[in-house]
Design a protein that fits this description.
- By secondary structure, the chain is an alpha/beta fold.
- The protein has 2 domains: 81 residues; 388 residues, TIM Barrel.
- Helix content is 42%, strand content 11%.
- The protein has 19 helices and 15 strands.
- The protein has an 8-stranded parallel sheet. Strands 1-14-15 form a 3-stranded antiparallel sheet.
- Flavin mononucleotide binds next to helix 16.
Amino acid sequence: MCFLTFLLFNVTAPLCYWEWSGFSEIDNERNLIMDIMPSADTVVSNLNILSTLFVSALGLGVLFIAILFIIDVNQTQDAIRRNYPVFGRFRYIFSTLGEFFRQYFFAMDREEMPFNRAERDWVDRAAKGHDNTIAFGSTKNLTPAGTVIFINCPFPTLDKDAVDMQPLEIGPFCKQPYNAPSFFNISGMSYGALSTPAVRALSKGARVAGCWMNTGEGGLSPHHLEGGCDIVMQIGTAKYGVRDAQGNLCDEKLRQVAAHTQVRMFELKMSQGAKPGKGGILPGIKVTAEIATIRGIPEGEDSISPNRHPEIDSVGDMLDMIGHIRDVTGKPVGFKSVMGSFGWIREMCEEIHIRGIETAPDFITIDSGDGGTGAAPMPLMDNVGLIIKESLPLVSDILHHYGLRDRIRLISSGKLITPSEVAWALATGADFVTSARGFMFSLGCIQALKCNKNTCPTGITTHNARLQKGLNPIDKAVKVASYCSNIIHEVHIISHSCGVVRPRLMGRKHIRIVQENGKSVPMDELYPRPDILPEYMGLAVNPSPDEENGGYCV
Ligand SMILES: Cc1cc2nc3c(=O)[nH]c(=O)nc-3n(C[C@H](O)[C@H](O)[C@H](O)COP(=O)(O)O)c2cc1C
């Protein structure tokens, strides 16, 4: 740019002058211009400098290409670069740039994975509190098998008859049960995977929205507490935040964490959808003084998360651990798992009936096999663990069959980031829905897929102070709260359209699922509720008032 301006001035100015001098009258102004005009000698010498610079740059360019050529033909790691020296490098440049071009220019609204543009835009508008209506017609293809269609009622619920969201009790046998106000909440993401401003924004936003925030397995940090929201403390396999020096569960630490009134529940992480059976190493370089204090590990040393809780080898062990944490903390305790098989859930139900229903987990969080993570191996992410569409109805039915559906609350997670997905989960059997990536989008995540690289451009999953600057916790907290309340609002709208007065009154009979042949089938035909075993009839403890769904319209 500078070069062009310089050239333009030097070449055009004298020409303009010669042009003007053809006029008979030369006024003072022109004289003045002449004075500041460079002389012909100056122009020639400038052109000389420029041409020398140009030739040198060209020479350097050729030299650079020659060096790349020599490097490429002599290296042995990369066949493309060896066979096509220099040109082969464009392949890597283009495939990196391709990520951006596809997202911005080429991918259709409903094409991208894991979340398409239509879904991300919905969250973005909900977070910003913008009008979330769309024009002209749906861009969603409604014919593929598995598509969910809600059954609208010819006489929808009038606004005046609609009922606000009701709190739901978790852990009726605990000293301090939790009356959870919101059916939509923030899923576990550890401090460490998330940056400080991201955790602060989520904490403040959750407080405003009245939803809970799960700490993830990295322990409870002051940033989680800062906003004053309800907190679910997750206990991962390394027991970060509640461990002794050897990595065993420490009762004293448990009591300290439970002493925070904000901490409402404890979640034992058995597995996570994106990486079931996977542990990990937190490299010493990431174990700063702050992380070391929060997690209860030595500063600067590698820290290992085992790939399961070493002391939990059976359903009985798991119930023992859950009972122990509940006794020590006095608060509801449940577990999080992605489903593969279901036999162990049946076994758990039978064991609960032997021990007494007060020994049951107070909740189960079912994570989808296609759930998110900061980092995981692709095979585990892609092909291990069932997706929530299949596992949620089956787990819900098993609990129902054993008369435990009201005793154990069901929380579901996994790509449930828009109102229709949340409504599907509630109608299918979930009492609560949690989301991680939905809330990341509300923080400004652009799906750059860099969570594992410390280069997150939006400052959400990076510890780079420069990148974190873009994330203002106060501003983003408003967006977090707005996203949550817009989800809740639109789930209510779906329920009213189905003819019930509030979302938890929706059931499987309000849903049809499109089949391979293009016809849709009622979901309660695909997944009929099993009968409760006779010996467990009448076991309902504080039943959800929603068990028998309304449904005048169905
Ligand atoms: C950055 C990130 C960090 C996560 N950290 C944890 C964690 O510490 N513990 C856990 O159980 N799940 C963790 N998860 C998984 C989420 O809690 C959630 O189960 C999963 O992403 C599915 O929900 P989503 O589809 O709404 O993201 C993490 C997910 C993300 C994206």
